[in-house]
């Protein structure tokens, strides 16, 4: 049973070592911590993390990849480093004070509808109280200094994601078109669709709340909670 779902983004700047003296991601990190606090207050038996990566897989442990983005600390071999999405998730969970069991899964950036559906079904079919943490960014083409430069289509595409997260509308997430998502560098598309399928298969009502939606660096970031509802 999925007792709650949280959406957080995974920019490297959420790794505090990379922000220098001025924490430019403080507001975003605070929203993530608040969302995770609401999830962990539901006392899940396990938190399942889903994030994008080059390939699907399960990840047990591993180093947070700070050195790979110019930070200091332990230099971990590539095969021991967590993918960025999972590394940021691990750091956010630690920051929120969660010390319970965690399972980490990746979904390929270009995962098909069948692949995201299968992943969502597996999560929904688990026994016990499951907290789901979904790591995903919106479009990265929202400004002249954005990683993908400016593409006006990004605003409409991201608005669709925002509305779906704010309304608890899993059908909106399942309707995200992989083609435009790839063109607009929407790194969370596949993870969002795993989430949509998981919630759909679980068959439970959710109480949605959107805590953050902004593009401070030309990339759209969302923080949202879908906690188990009643009625």
Automatic annotation (TrEMBL):
Superkingdom to which the source organism belongs: Bacteria
Name listed for the protein in its UniProt record: Extradiol ring-cleavage dioxygenase class III enzyme subunit B domain-containing protein
The organism of origin for this protein: Streptomonospora nanhaiensis
